[in-house]
Amino acid sequence: MRVAIIGASGLVGGNCLQVFSRKGWPCLGTHFGFATEQTVYYNTLEPDHAQNPDWDSFAPEVIVNCGALTHVDHCEQHPDESFEKTVQSNRNILKLARKYGARVVYISTDYVFDGENGPYTEDAPQNPLSVYGLHKQTAERETLESGLQALVLRITNVYGDEIRGKNFVARLLNQLNEGRAPELVLPADQYATPVNAADLAQALYLLLKDGKTGVYHIASTDWLNRVQLALKVLSFFPEMPYTLRAMRTADMQQPAKRPLFGGLIAHKFLSEYPEFRFSGVDMYLLSKI
Ligand SMILES: NC(=O)c1ccc[n+]([C@@H]2O[C@H](COP(=O)([O-])OP(=O)(O)OC[C@H]3O[C@@H](n4cnc5c(N)ncnc54)[C@H](OP(=O)(O)O)[C@@H]3O)[C@@H](O)[C@H]2O)c1
User: How many domains does the chain have?
Assistant: First the structure.
């Protein structure tokens, strides 16, 4: 299966590129601003850019859209840019998919929910609180209504190996491994279900292999707030000093509202793949120290 992975220089796309390539699928992974050895340039917002891939020669059978503007507060303060980089970008990818009759995968988030009573199943009522959440909701709906064979994966709090090591867990691990004492200020009331990007890529591989469509929540059974997640990482470095100030989200004055009781329930996925095991944060940390 020829798979184009848009945003393969990032956390989710990079792990999809690794897993799908290992499974023997011919992959074309793209970057935008951060070139890597495994990716080629592609700007979703300029479909005719001279440096874009030669799509005719690759002729994708599946396009996985992992590209987005993911900085939630920036999206809140720059809604037009957020629309362009999430909704318009995805529209251009849907157009590309239509040209090749390709299946599409859209990577979405628990921010489509309001966090009143998570973790959430796929059919829970949506009510995004932020511009980011609203634009992700629009892009996932347009993907599902595109008439193409479409899959939407909702995820949250992704961690794991990535070239830039920029996810929360990787950054904290990096700091601790280098012997730098962390000084953390974190919300203690935002709960989510952290998931390892490698597990997520493996789950997506299975869904694609089996031709699944529709919405799937991908999550482990960890349901943690940021303080608990940080303490988990810190517990693997008992000698390391640190400071940690736990805050209420309401006191943090972040531009974008956050779902507080967020997170996702992967019951649908696990009922179709009962042998699948999500690894959990502890297992990832054990492999890293
Ligand atoms: N990480 C999480 O915790 C999380 C949670 C929920 C949902 N998600 C969703 O999962 C998806 C992937 O997130 P991620 O964490 O992997 O993000 P990421 O690491 O920031 O990667 C985003 C990717 O998109 C590419 N990109 C950005 N603008 C582009 C454009 N105009 N044209 C082409 N490519 C472009 C980036 O390229 P360069 O870096 O090369 O510029 C990068 O490869 C996003 O849709 C995000 O909303 C992530």
Answer: 1
